[in-house]
Amino acid sequence: xxxxxxxxxxxxxxxxxxxxxxxxxxxxxxxxxxxxxxxxxxxxxxxxxxxxxxxxxxxxxxxxxxxxxxxxxxxxxxxxxxxxxxxxxxxxxxxxxxxxxxxxxxxxxxxxxxxxxxxxxxxxxxxxxxxxxxxxxxxxxxxxxxxxxxxxxx
Amino acid sequence: xxxxxxxxxxxxxxxxxxxxxxxxxxxxxxxxxxxxxxxxxxxxxxxxxxxxxxxxxxxxxxxxxxxxxxxxxxxxxxxxxxxxxxxxxxxxxxxxxxxxxxxxxxxxxxxxxxxxxxxxxxxxxxxxxxxxxxxxxxxxxxxxxxxxxxxxxxxxxxxxxxxxxxxxxxxxxxxxxxxxx
Lengths: 154, 181
What we know:
The complex is a heterodimer of chains A (154) and B (181).
Chain A: H1 2-31, E1 33-38, E2 41-46, E3 51-55, H2 64-67, H3 72-106, H4 114-151
Helix pairs in contact in A: 3-4
Chain B: H1 2-36, E1 38-43, E2 46-51, E3 57-61, H2 69-72, H3 77-112, H4 119-161, H5 173-180
Antiparallel strand pairs in B: 1-2, 2-3
Helix pairs in contact in B: 1-4, 3-4
């Protein structure tokens, strides 16, 4: 009787350990996120099945905070991404538009030279500042996904 | 009676040991992930490979430069395959982008100098087309890099869940001498 109960307890111990390992393992395989880019389109993909769970539209970033809300650290980084992505995109777009305007203004004869120069300087500033905002956004996204994948197993 | 008490004690001990060992396993699992898992940050067209959330920079990849990603993720076969895809796409993208940019600049310079021959628009359109295709190749390369690091991190998780390998006896000079004697 005693031997049977010891054997049963040992089997339960081994079984529980194995189930925990398999559960944690499959959790990463099925739920871990990563970033992919198809035809210039930013996508967030889940698991080995590569299910697209979020994608960036024109002037609209993917809703990362909703995706990673289960992890506190990830949520904080996702907010950094969401705070910087849209302003960064708008600034870079405005900068490119101003660059086009500067080139166009430069071709107009008898136009004050200050106008194309001013447009060019503004466009460089906007592209530079917007670019750095996008850099911060992508850094936040990378960290958010890393933290989310780390906290999957908890 | 005695056997029942012993059984109850064993069951009670297991109830305490199982949750404690699971928590300890999760702690070691997290610390292993924290110390080894990789991620990448895009930075003005190149990718910085970083270990951990704020960890050390492992290397920078992209535009004709880069660390050997295959070497970094050598421990995971699936990650190695994606790293190879990254390497070939990244090299192709760098070559095509450079050719495209050069062709576009030549076309723009010729157009600015007032040379109105048919080659000028062909050079500009061809150059811009090559740059767009090259950018697409860069996107494919970075997706492969992302998948490579994903597989690598997955194998870090797996390794932390499996029991540590049994210690292997390293032959020392004394043991070799004793064997010969």
